[in-house]
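REVIEWER CHECKLIST
Item 1: Sequence provided? yes
Item 2: Single chain? yes
Item 3: Sequence as submitted:
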Amino acid sequence: MANLSTVKHEQIEEILQQYRVHQERELNSLREQLAGQLQDTEVAGELEDFGNLVDAYKKEHKVTNEELALLSGKSKNAISKACQRPGSAGVATITSILDAMGYRLVIARGNPKPIAEQD
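Item 4: Structure as written out by the authors:
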């Protein structure tokens, strides 16, 4: 009887080991996918660069603050204040303006390099 119990225990251990190997492979695959997606993201800048990003967008697309206000659903005054002091602006204001320009807000660990420095 003890022999049968030992065999079952060994089978269970073998199955568990196979499961662990499978899980580790899956986890590594997900890590690789995530790393690839993070590398594919272009960093436009940090919060301090927000005003410059908005100015560059407006210049490139010939958009005024009034037009950006209509696109973002924020007031012209809110856009001006966010560009001057982005650290004091609310997240909803920043994300609305970014969305209107085709950008998104990303929170990342570490110090991401702007696009110009990634080469």
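Item 5: Key structural point noted by reviewer: The radius of gyration is 25 Å.
Item 6: Recommendation: ____
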